[in-house]
TrEMBL record:
Superkingdom of the source species: Archaea
Region (Disordered): 231-260
Species of the source: Halorubrum halodurans
The protein, known as: ABC transporter
Family: Belongs to the ABC transporter superfamily.
UniProt-recorded Gene Ontology molecular function terms: ATP binding; ATP hydrolysis activity
Annotated Gene3D superfamilies: P-loop containing nucleotide triphosphate hydrolases (3.40.50.300)
Protein backbone atom coordinates (compact mmCIF):
# COMPACT_ATOMS: atom_id res chain seq x y z
CA UNK A 1 0.00 0.00 0.00
CA UNK A 2 1.14 3.53 -0.73
CA UNK A 3 2.14 5.69 2.23
CA UNK A 4 0.87 8.81 0.55
CA UNK A 5 -2.50 10.22 1.56
CA UNK A 6 -5.34 10.21 -0.97
CA UNK A 7 -7.31 13.00 0.67
CA UNK A 8 -6.94 15.50 3.47
CA UNK A 9 -9.00 17.63 5.77
CA UNK A 10 -6.93 20.57 7.00
CA UNK A 11 -8.11 22.61 9.97
CA UNK A 12 -11.73 21.97 9.08
CA UNK A 13 -14.40 23.67 11.16
CA UNK A 14 -18.15 23.65 10.64
CA UNK A 15 -20.80 25.54 12.51
CA UNK A 16 -24.58 25.42 12.31
CA UNK A 17 -26.36 28.53 13.52
CA UNK A 18 -23.19 29.62 15.31
CA UNK A 19 -22.80 26.27 17.09
CA UNK A 20 -19.50 24.49 16.40
CA UNK A 21 -19.99 20.93 15.16
CA UNK A 22 -16.43 20.35 13.93
CA UNK A 23 -13.42 22.26 15.26
CA UNK A 24 -9.93 22.26 13.78
CA UNK A 25 -10.17 18.78 12.30
CA UNK A 26 -7.11 17.67 10.34
CA UNK A 27 -7.27 14.17 8.95
CA UNK A 28 -5.31 12.48 6.18
CA UNK A 29 -6.92 9.59 4.33
CA UNK A 30 -4.60 6.76 3.30
CA UNK A 31 -5.27 3.72 1.10
CA UNK A 32 -7.12 1.01 3.02
CA UNK A 33 -10.04 1.24 5.42
CA UNK A 34 -10.36 4.13 7.85
CA UNK A 35 -13.17 4.00 10.40
CA UNK A 36 -14.54 7.14 12.03
CA UNK A 37 -16.04 6.40 15.42
CA UNK A 38 -17.43 8.54 18.21
CA UNK A 39 -20.55 9.21 20.26
CA UNK A 40 -23.83 10.35 18.74
CA UNK A 41 -23.54 13.94 17.65
CA UNK A 42 -19.73 14.00 17.76
CA UNK A 43 -19.59 15.15 14.12
CA UNK A 44 -18.93 11.94 12.17
CA UNK A 45 -21.49 12.61 9.43
CA UNK A 46 -20.33 16.19 9.13
CA UNK A 47 -16.71 15.07 8.77
CA UNK A 48 -17.62 12.50 6.13
CA UNK A 49 -19.77 15.02 4.28
CA UNK A 50 -16.88 17.48 4.22
CA UNK A 51 -14.54 14.79 2.95
CA UNK A 52 -16.97 13.84 0.19
CA UNK A 53 -17.45 17.46 -0.81
CA UNK A 54 -21.12 17.41 0.17
CA UNK A 55 -20.71 19.76 3.16
CA UNK A 56 -18.85 23.05 2.87
CA UNK A 57 -16.49 23.72 5.79
CA UNK A 58 -16.92 27.03 7.60
CA UNK A 59 -13.14 27.13 7.93
CA UNK A 60 -10.24 25.03 6.64
CA UNK A 61 -10.47 22.85 3.59
CA UNK A 62 -11.00 19.35 2.27
CA UNK A 63 -9.13 18.18 -0.76
CA UNK A 64 -8.46 15.09 -2.75
CA UNK A 65 -4.75 14.71 -3.36
CA UNK A 66 -4.56 11.27 -4.97
CA UNK A 67 -3.63 10.52 -8.56
CA UNK A 68 -7.21 10.13 -9.90
CA UNK A 69 -8.24 13.66 -9.08
CA UNK A 70 -10.67 13.84 -11.99
CA UNK A 71 -12.83 10.95 -10.82
CA UNK A 72 -15.90 11.24 -8.60
CA UNK A 73 -15.82 10.23 -4.93
CA UNK A 74 -18.21 7.46 -3.94
CA UNK A 75 -20.44 8.73 -1.16
CA UNK A 76 -23.14 7.07 0.92
CA UNK A 77 -24.93 9.69 3.02
CA UNK A 78 -27.16 8.65 5.92
CA UNK A 79 -30.21 9.10 3.69
CA UNK A 80 -29.87 8.51 -0.04
CA UNK A 81 -32.44 10.36 -2.17
CA UNK A 82 -33.18 7.43 -4.49
CA UNK A 83 -35.97 7.66 -7.07
CA UNK A 84 -38.61 5.31 -5.68
CA UNK A 85 -40.00 4.31 -9.09
CA UNK A 86 -36.62 3.23 -10.52
CA UNK A 87 -35.63 -0.41 -10.27
CA UNK A 88 -32.44 -1.31 -8.43
CA UNK A 89 -30.70 -1.93 -11.77
CA UNK A 90 -31.94 1.36 -13.27
CA UNK A 91 -30.73 3.15 -10.15
CA UNK A 92 -27.23 1.74 -10.47
CA UNK A 93 -27.20 2.34 -14.22
CA UNK A 94 -27.80 6.00 -13.42
CA UNK A 95 -24.84 6.16 -11.02
CA UNK A 96 -22.66 4.07 -13.36
CA UNK A 97 -23.36 6.70 -16.01
CA UNK A 98 -21.52 9.16 -13.77
CA UNK A 99 -18.86 6.97 -12.16
CA UNK A 100 -18.47 4.13 -14.69
CA UNK A 101 -18.64 0.45 -13.84
CA UNK A 102 -21.21 -2.30 -14.33
CA UNK A 103 -24.59 -2.03 -12.53
CA UNK A 104 -25.11 -5.80 -12.37
CA UNK A 105 -21.66 -6.42 -10.98
CA UNK A 106 -22.27 -3.76 -8.33
CA UNK A 107 -25.60 -5.38 -7.39
CA UNK A 108 -23.95 -8.79 -7.14
CA UNK A 109 -21.27 -7.34 -4.87
CA UNK A 110 -23.87 -6.50 -2.22
CA UNK A 111 -26.00 -9.60 -2.79
CA UNK A 112 -28.87 -7.82 -4.51
CA UNK A 113 -28.81 -9.60 -7.89
CA UNK A 114 -32.21 -11.18 -7.26
CA UNK A 115 -33.70 -7.76 -6.54
CA UNK A 116 -32.35 -6.12 -9.71
CA UNK A 117 -35.83 -5.63 -11.23
CA UNK A 118 -37.59 -4.54 -8.04
CA UNK A 119 -38.54 -0.93 -7.59
CA UNK A 120 -36.53 0.95 -4.98
CA UNK A 121 -39.81 1.86 -3.24
CA UNK A 122 -40.48 -1.86 -2.69
CA UNK A 123 -37.10 -2.64 -1.10
CA UNK A 124 -36.72 -3.17 2.64
CA UNK A 125 -34.72 -0.63 4.62
CA UNK A 126 -31.77 -3.02 4.77
CA UNK A 127 -31.85 -3.71 1.03
CA UNK A 128 -31.99 0.00 0.41
CA UNK A 129 -28.87 0.41 2.51
CA UNK A 130 -27.10 -2.29 0.49
CA UNK A 131 -28.19 -0.51 -2.71
CA UNK A 132 -26.61 2.61 -1.25
CA UNK A 133 -23.33 0.78 -0.77
CA UNK A 134 -23.52 -0.51 -4.35
CA UNK A 135 -24.21 3.02 -5.53
CA UNK A 136 -21.17 4.38 -3.70
CA UNK A 137 -18.79 1.71 -4.93
CA UNK A 138 -19.91 1.31 -8.55
CA UNK A 139 -17.10 2.23 -10.91
CA UNK A 140 -14.48 1.55 -8.19
CA UNK A 141 -13.85 5.17 -7.19
CA UNK A 142 -10.44 5.89 -5.62
CA UNK A 143 -12.14 7.27 -2.49
CA UNK A 144 -15.34 5.83 -1.05
CA UNK A 145 -17.04 7.57 1.89
CA UNK A 146 -19.73 5.55 3.68
CA UNK A 147 -21.81 7.07 6.47
CA UNK A 148 -23.02 4.25 8.72
CA UNK A 149 -23.35 1.65 5.96
CA UNK A 150 -24.53 -0.99 8.44
CA UNK A 151 -27.40 0.95 10.01
CA UNK A 152 -30.67 -0.95 9.78
CA UNK A 153 -29.01 -4.23 8.80
CA UNK A 154 -29.25 -7.53 10.67
CA UNK A 155 -25.99 -9.03 12.03
CA UNK A 156 -25.28 -11.16 8.95
CA UNK A 157 -25.94 -8.28 6.60
CA UNK A 158 -23.83 -5.93 8.72
CA UNK A 159 -20.88 -8.24 8.31
CA UNK A 160 -21.51 -8.46 4.57
CA UNK A 161 -21.87 -4.70 4.22
CA UNK A 162 -18.65 -4.01 6.10
CA UNK A 163 -16.76 -6.68 4.17
CA UNK A 164 -18.03 -5.26 0.87
CA UNK A 165 -16.91 -1.83 1.96
CA UNK A 166 -13.50 -3.13 3.02
CA UNK A 167 -13.13 -4.99 -0.27
CA UNK A 168 -13.64 -1.70 -2.10
CA UNK A 169 -10.35 -0.48 -0.68
CA UNK A 170 -7.04 -1.44 -2.19
CA UNK A 171 -3.42 -0.49 -2.61
CA UNK A 172 -4.39 2.82 -4.18
CA UNK A 173 -7.95 3.26 -3.00
CA UNK A 174 -9.38 4.35 0.31
CA UNK A 175 -12.63 3.64 2.08
CA UNK A 176 -13.73 5.88 4.93
CA UNK A 177 -16.60 4.55 7.00
CA UNK A 178 -18.39 5.86 10.05
CA UNK A 179 -19.81 3.26 12.36
CA UNK A 180 -21.03 2.46 15.86
CA UNK A 181 -20.25 -1.21 15.16
CA UNK A 182 -16.96 -1.37 17.05
CA UNK A 183 -16.47 -5.12 16.57
CA UNK A 184 -16.65 -4.74 12.78
CA UNK A 185 -14.40 -1.71 12.92
CA UNK A 186 -11.93 -3.74 14.95
CA UNK A 187 -12.04 -6.53 12.38
CA UNK A 188 -11.82 -4.48 9.18
CA UNK A 189 -10.28 -1.06 9.82
CA UNK A 190 -6.63 -0.35 9.11
CA UNK A 191 -6.90 3.08 10.68
CA UNK A 192 -9.24 4.68 13.16
CA UNK A 193 -10.31 8.26 13.80
CA UNK A 194 -12.01 8.86 17.15
CA UNK A 195 -14.15 11.99 17.21
CA UNK A 196 -15.35 13.52 20.45
CA UNK A 197 -17.46 16.68 20.55
CA UNK A 198 -16.32 17.82 17.13
CA UNK A 199 -12.61 17.28 17.67
CA UNK A 200 -10.21 14.49 16.75
CA UNK A 201 -9.48 12.72 20.05
CA UNK A 202 -7.22 10.08 18.47
CA UNK A 203 -6.25 9.03 14.95
CA UNK A 204 -3.83 6.63 13.37
CA UNK A 205 -3.24 2.97 12.57
CA UNK A 206 -5.52 0.74 14.64
CA UNK A 207 -2.74 -1.43 16.03
CA UNK A 208 -0.61 1.50 17.09
CA UNK A 209 -3.50 3.34 18.74
CA UNK A 210 -4.50 0.23 20.70
CA UNK A 211 -0.92 -0.34 21.76
CA UNK A 212 -0.41 3.33 22.73
CA UNK A 213 -3.51 3.23 24.90
CA UNK A 214 -2.79 -0.21 26.37
CA UNK A 215 -6.02 -1.75 25.07
CA UNK A 216 -6.75 -4.90 23.09
CA UNK A 217 -9.34 -3.69 20.65
CA UNK A 218 -11.27 -0.74 19.22
CA UNK A 219 -13.97 -0.97 21.90
CA UNK A 220 -11.22 -0.55 24.51
CA UNK A 221 -9.77 2.34 22.54
CA UNK A 222 -13.17 4.04 22.46
CA UNK A 223 -13.55 3.68 26.22
CA UNK A 224 -10.05 4.96 26.83
CA UNK A 225 -10.32 8.00 24.59
CA UNK A 226 -13.87 9.30 24.61
CA UNK A 227 -14.48 11.89 27.29
CA UNK A 228 -16.72 10.87 30.12
CA UNK A 229 -16.50 7.18 29.34
CA UNK A 230 -13.39 6.27 31.31
CA UNK A 231 -14.45 7.14 34.82
CA UNK A 232 -13.51 10.83 34.77
CA UNK A 233 -14.42 13.20 31.99
CA UNK A 234 -11.62 15.68 32.73
CA UNK A 235 -8.84 13.13 32.46
CA UNK A 236 -10.36 11.48 29.44
CA UNK A 237 -10.82 14.79 27.67
CA UNK A 238 -7.24 15.76 28.40
CA UNK A 239 -5.97 12.42 27.14
CA UNK A 240 -8.00 12.94 23.97
CA UNK A 241 -6.55 16.35 23.29
CA UNK A 242 -3.06 15.01 23.77
CA UNK A 243 -3.71 12.29 21.26
CA UNK A 244 -4.95 14.79 18.75
CA UNK A 245 -1.62 16.55 18.98
CA UNK A 246 0.45 13.40 18.86
CA UNK A 247 -1.38 11.01 16.57
CA UNK A 248 -1.11 11.37 12.87
CA UNK A 249 -4.26 12.31 11.02
CA UNK A 250 -6.18 9.47 9.48
CA UNK A 251 -8.96 8.81 6.98
CA UNK A 252 -12.67 8.59 6.26
CA UNK A 253 -15.08 6.45 4.09
CA UNK A 254 -18.49 7.27 2.17
CA UNK A 255 -21.07 6.04 -0.47
CA UNK A 256 -22.76 8.13 -3.20
CA UNK A 257 -21.42 10.22 -5.99
CA UNK A 258 -20.08 13.57 -5.00
CA UNK A 259 -19.01 16.40 -7.26
CA UNK A 260 -15.66 17.87 -6.39
N1 LIG B 1 -27.88 20.53 8.95
C1 LIG B 1 -27.71 20.71 10.27
N2 LIG B 1 -28.28 21.74 10.91
C2 LIG B 1 -28.09 21.95 12.24
N3 LIG B 1 -27.38 21.12 13.04
C3 LIG B 1 -26.80 20.07 12.46
C4 LIG B 1 -26.93 19.79 11.06
N4 LIG B 1 -26.24 18.66 10.77
C5 LIG B 1 -25.70 18.25 11.95
N5 LIG B 1 -26.04 19.07 12.95
C6 LIG B 1 -25.64 18.94 14.36
O1 LIG B 1 -24.26 18.70 14.38
C7 LIG B 1 -23.92 17.78 15.40
C8 LIG B 1 -23.10 16.66 14.81
O2 LIG B 1 -23.94 15.91 13.91
P1 LIG B 1 -23.40 14.69 13.08
O3 LIG B 1 -24.60 14.12 12.37
O4 LIG B 1 -22.25 15.12 12.25
O5 LIG B 1 -22.90 13.73 14.23
P2 LIG B 1 -22.70 12.15 14.20
O6 LIG B 1 -21.49 11.89 15.01
O7 LIG B 1 -22.71 11.64 12.79
O8 LIG B 1 -23.97 11.62 14.97
P3 LIG B 1 -24.73 10.18 14.94
O9 LIG B 1 -23.76 9.16 15.48
O10 LIG B 1 -25.88 10.39 15.85
O11 LIG B 1 -25.13 9.93 13.51
C9 LIG B 1 -25.22 17.35 16.05
O12 LIG B 1 -25.42 18.08 17.23
C10 LIG B 1 -26.26 17.71 15.01
O13 LIG B 1 -27.48 18.03 15.63
Amino acid sequence: MSDDPLAELSGVARTYGGVAVLEDVSVAVFPGVTAVIGPNGSGKSTLLGALAGAIEPTDGRARYVGPDAGRPIGYLPQRVPFREEFTARETLAFYAGVAGGDPDEALARVGLSDAADRRVGALSGGMRRLLGIAQATVGDPPLVVLDEPTSGLDPGMRERAFRTAADASGADTAVVVSSHDLDLVDEHADRVVVLDRGRVAAAGPRDRLCSDHGVDDVAGLYRAVVAGDAGGSGDAADAGSGDADRDEPSGVHVTGVSER
